[in-house]
Design brief:
This protein has 392 residues and is an alpha/beta fold. It is built from 18 helices and 11 strands. The strands form 2 sheets. A 9-stranded mixed beta sheet has the order 1-2-6-5-4-3-7-8-9, with helices on both faces. Strand 4, helix 8 and strand 5 form a beta-alpha-beta unit.
Length: 392
């Protein structure tokens, strides 16, 4: 993606009334953010599924001189803070996140997002956690990071902070997804933690740099936490909580794996976890090996050569940096992955692969993620191609 297209996306996002869903519809309809800026009022109304009057107001707002000034200030603020702005569809945008229904059009990234961060586990739970919850969050994060998983959480008090610290203690990768702009991080008390995370992973937001931590931002950022990961682990959650929102998104919209850690049977802080387990939409886990089992093929591949223990100690084998050795690329392809590779006799889109293989889109997404990590498949624009000798 060139600078002009990224700037057009930034201009759209900074337009009042234009959110991820509307931008997504417009880009799908017109092919790019640049084309969206050039669309007529009638075509915008059709793409955004709104009335002509509203579409006209949005079009005027897009082309207001203030948008150009806003965009320039945003680019300058990001550059001054050593923050990258990465657009959906651009190299470096997280591959798992691309597939959620309302993927953020832009990500502000402090630190580095890497390709192997796709092997990720999201960890969520209560801000007002118990000592037990904090200990378990740090223990699981340590063990899972040691096994090669990137730990994704929200940077908040309680379980989130413990998960990040566990991953850092293991020398592993971790990503914090904020509900505010990166120049206005919340909570303020975690600025040193965010500095450390940026050195060992990334601090990420979908909000412009100076966006304050408004209450409505946090439920929105939960979809990114789930969307970045192969699965979500709930450590402590009451019956009504933000962790519940993330858990529902994980299962119902993203098709990812959901796991939960049990607590005391009479503990209200674990009532949500127990309900998820009882109702069958979360798998009960008691150690890192259970988590890797819950992540299916990706978890099994990470187990190869890692010597993951039974979860009662602090870590397994390996080099302490999280890695997975060569095992990730040495295990044979699954039957469904073989069907995807066979269908790539020519470049195909996600929908075309689903039609050709007869598999569900969510299964195809999972297979493509693993095939990309193996280097068997690569992207070319919006299409997937089988990597041949000439691509190596």
């Amino acid at each position: 993606m060139d600078h002009a297209e990224r700037d057009a996306m930034l201009r759209l996002l900074l337009t009042p009334g234009m959110g991820a869903v509307r931008i997504g519809r417009c880009v799908a309809a017109f092919g790019s953010a640049t084309a969206t800026l050039g669309a007529s009022t009638d075509r915008l109304a059709e793409a955004m599924r709104c009335g002509g009057q509203q579409a006209g107001k949005l079009r005027s707002a897009m082309h207001d001189a203030q948008r150009e000034a806003d965009s320039a200030r945003e680019r300058e603020a990001a550059a001054a803070a050593d923050v990258q702005i990465i657009a959906l569809g651009e190299t470096g945008y997280p591959r798992l996140l691309e597939h959620i229904p309302d993927a953020p059009p832009l990500l502000w990234v402090r630190g580095e997002l890497r390709e192997d961060d796709a092997l990720a586990l999201a960890m969520v739970g209560s801000r007002r956690c118990t000592l037990y919850g904090r200990e378990q969050a740090e223990r699981f994060a340590y063990q899972c990071a040691h096994a090669g998983l990137c730990i994704v959480s929200g940077g908040a008090y309680g379980i989130d902070a413990a998960a990040h610290r566990g991953a850092l203690k293991a020398g592993g990768r971790t990503i914090a997804v904020l509900g505010s702009g990166l120049e206005n991080p919340y909570p303020r008390e975690h600025h040193e933690l965010y500095d450390e995370i940026a050195q060992r992973g990334a601090v990420v937001s979908e909000f412009p740099m100076v966006t304050p931590p408004a209450a409505e931002n946090f439920p929105r950022r939960n979809r990114i936490i789930s969307g970045l990961a192969l699965g979500v682990l709930v450590v402590e959650a009451a019956n009504r909580s933000g962790a519940h929102i993330t858990a529902r998104l994980c299962v119902e919209e993203h098709g990812r794996e959901l796991m939960a850690i049990p607590g005391r049977v009479d503990a209200p802080t674990s009532a949500g976890c127990h309900k998820m387990i009882r109702e069958g939409w979360a798998k009960l886990v008691t150690n890192a090996a259970d988590v890797l089992d819950g992540l299916g093929e990706a978890g099994q591949m990470l187990k190869v050569g890692m010597g993951v223990d039974d979860g009662h100690g602090e870590g397994g084998g390996g080099d302490g940096g999280g890695g997975g050795g060569g095992g990730l690329f040495e295990v044979a392809l699954t039957d469904s992955q073989q069907r995807v590779v066979a269908a790539l006799d020519e470049p195909r889109s996600l929908d075309e692969l689903a039609a050709a293989t007869g598999a569900a889109v969510q299964q195809i997404q999972s297979d493509l993620t693993m095939l990309e990590l193996r280097g068997t498949v690569r992207r070319r624009g919006g299409l997937f191609v089988r990597r041949g000798k000439s691509d190596s």
